[in-house]
Amino acid sequence: MTLKDTAEEWEITATATPFTGNKTSVRTDDVVMPGGGVATRDYQVHPGSVAVVALDERGRVLVINQYRHPVRHRLWEIPAGLLDIPGENPLHAAQRELYEEAHVKAEDWRVLTDIYSSPGGCDEAIRVFLARDLSEADGERFEVDEEEADMEIARVPLDELVRGVLAGELHHNCLVVGVLSLVAAERGDGLDALRPAGAPWPARPFEA
Fold first, then answer.
1. Which is nearest to 25 in space by CA: 49, 43, 39?
2. Which residues are known catalytic residues?
3. Which segment of the chain is annotated as a signal peptide (predicted)?
4. What does the pLDDT read at residue 86?
């Protein structure tokens, strides 16, 4: 049997948006259940995100460390950011985030994996890219502020990140998924067999 997620939408009898924030909102839907009853479901409406596993020639992954207020932690993460523009090409967004957060560019881009971050309570879709052939970006560094103002950047061997994930020391979802997917790809058909950077993404359709 081939396992594959499938698109499906149940009937909604009523909907409301009780909260709207700067980037996301909360929606309340009354959804018809298989037995005919109606259940209320609250969830965060999110524009979507991209993340980048940037792998250098020495087998190290570029990671950043910054404060995340909702969980009261400084987390080690991979470069990531929101899809701020509706219909934006996710590759362009990923290239922008790698430049802004690390002042790095990459010549080889591929899709590592696509995920829903928390599908029981949020519609956020994330595309995780693999970036290789890294070099310093041209021009001046992007000026950061707020949580990113004291952000730390490091390049860490892949094996060390895997150890940290499995030891429960690294928790960010994009880092965990990205690192373990990279290992799986290396041990499977190889990194060159990954989907091209412009592969379709039904969860967040975009223009080429």
1. 43
2. 148
3. none
4. 82
